[in-house]
Amino acid sequence: MFKNSVIDKQMDMFSETSSHLQESSQKKFDNPNSWHNLFRTQVYSRVDENHYKVLFDQKMGAPNAPIRLLISMMILKEAFGWSDQQLFEQCNFNLLVRSALGLINLSDKVPVESTYYLLRKRIYQHRESTGEDLLENTFEDITSGQIKDFEVNGKSIRMDSKLLGSNIGFYTRYEIVHRTLCLFYNSLKPKSLSALSSDEGKQLKEICSENAQKTVYHSIRKDLEDRLKVLGILTYKVLLVYKVHASKKQYQLLDRVFNEHFKVEQDQQIILRPKEELTTHSVQSPHDPDSAYRQKGDQKVKGYSVNVTETNSEDQLNLITNIQVDKANAPDTEFVKPSIESTQEVSGQQVEKVYADGAYQSPANEQQCQDIDMVFTGMQGAESRYELQMTPEGLLVTDTRTLESEIAQKATKTKRSKEDRYYIVKDDKRIYFGQSAIRASQQRQTLKQRPIEELRKRNNVEATIYQLVVHVRNNKTRYRTMIKQKMWALCRSLWINFIRILNHTTQTCQRTIILQKMSKKSAIFHLKTLFFTKIDKSY
């Protein structure tokens, strides 16, 4: 037994990667500031495996590979934009990647694909069943440790968002209803199909065998509306017959799509809803029911909105502290409070100043962030002709065109009005000003008083957004569903933080070397000065 252990140690010694390299290569490979060694210490080693114990029990044991290794593989996959095949190829044959993953010896085994996929699947399922995001917990742990070790200042932060499309096509109404019905049909067992009448079963089979995209292409609008009505009637019958499958995801999705596109009259007649009744929350694709629609300017997106929050310190290390992913139609104002609270928890510091654009501005956020200096670089909506300012005498209204000022009259409150309103008379017409108009005017005046240098501090977060989506093509990610989008964003953010730490460490080492050289030169100069001073005195 003892002899075998000695032999194993000797084998490990000879299988160590760096021992097979030339001296110059070995020196570079063993450099603690090389990216693969720094990744192992700053990311791989910081993964707390205890978070993932909830995924396993006595019946379903832990995977046959370290959790931190599998999580680090996920991060590297998104870091370099690899496919799964490229990931495993790099893990097997790239010495730097193996070292980054803690595979120090050539004999160390890479996890098999099934182990990697199973962990991802369990993370998804745990998120769906409990709402807990285990990878987000890992992100917060790693970032918190990095902030403490590198003394990152978290008192000032900046944030920005980005609309990203899901990996789905732009389907018409007919395609959405058709594909959703077919998904449910394909999920049924052959024995279950007998629950429909022979005519209905035949009709359903024929519909699911057709190509919806070709049908849309070859049909005029009137024909498509007629076909949609037929689909609606058949879908309604299917939902009634297979109500026993109400707990199935495919059934719930079909029921949701039916209610979004159709309505049932009292006489059980199925009516196609007008297009105007469809909301941005409606299903955009049965393959990604989490996604939503949003049009921002000329940009049309069926997908998600990703919000990035990072620290904001000049000439210091800045790290991403929070990542949020929501449906594309979610307003940016909803990101403010969670971003601040998460940053304070991760950094252990109180946020004092926030830099953001005008889309994050709202009365609710002003009330919730009273002790924080909210620096907005712009405001939504057109600028009003009138500047408003509350004075002891009342609301002072200044016409920016004529530069005339007057105190506004207080309007009489009605039963519906909850806040005070004011008005002035202009050309025999009353112009009213509510509390929202007063707040907007005050905010614009505050914005004009901000130095341009301070307003520019938010701009660097746009570079972070670019780094986040650098591997995205056609403004679409590779993934579907919100949890997968969130995992992608968290992995990318961990990598961005790591690269910043790598650059920061490299710069610090270079400065240290320069200072050491300067100190040596100054010491030599000092010794020479003393020596020649003594010689001068001897004369």
Question: What's the topology here?
Answer:
Blueprint lengths: L1 H14 L7 H7 L5 H8 L24 H14 L3 H10 L1 H6 L12 H18 L3 H16 L6 E10 L7 H15 L10 H12 L2 H6 L3 H21 L7 H13 E3 L5 E3 L19 E5 L2 E13 L8 E8 L8 H12 L5 E4 L6 H6 L4 E4 L9 E6 L2 E6 L5 E3 L1 E2 L11 E5 L2 E5 L1 H15 L2 H4 L4 H9 L13 H57 L1
Parallel strand pairs: 1-7, 7-8
Antiparallel strand pairs: 1-5, 2-3, 4-5, 5-6, 9-10, 10-11, 12-13, 13-14
Describe the structure in your own words.
Strands 1, 4, 5, 6, 7 and 8 form a six-stranded mixed β-sheet that branches. This protein has a three-stranded antiparallel β-sheet with strand order 9-10-11. The relative contact order is 0.11. It has helices at residues 2-15, 23-29, 35-42, 67-80, 84-93, 95-100, 113-130, 134-149, 173-187, 198-209, 212-217, 221-241, 249-261, 336-347, 363-368, 435-449, 452-455, 460-468, 482-538; strands at residues 156-165, 262-264, 270-272, 292-296, 299-311, 320-327, 353-356, 373-376, 386-391, 394-399, 405-407, 409-410, 422-426, 429-433. Helix 4 (67-80) crosses helix 19, helix 9 crosses helix 10 (198-209) and helix 12 crosses helix 13. The protein is flat and about 90 Å long. It has four domains: 2-132, no CATH class; 152-167 and 302-380 and 458-539, Ribonuclease H-like superfamily/Ribonuclease H (Nucleotidyltransferase, domain 5, 2-Layer Sandwich); 173-277; 386-449, no CATH class. It has 539 residues and is of the alpha+beta class. Strand 7 (353-356), helix 15 and strand 8 (373-376) form a beta-alpha-beta unit. The protein starts with a helix and ends with a helix.
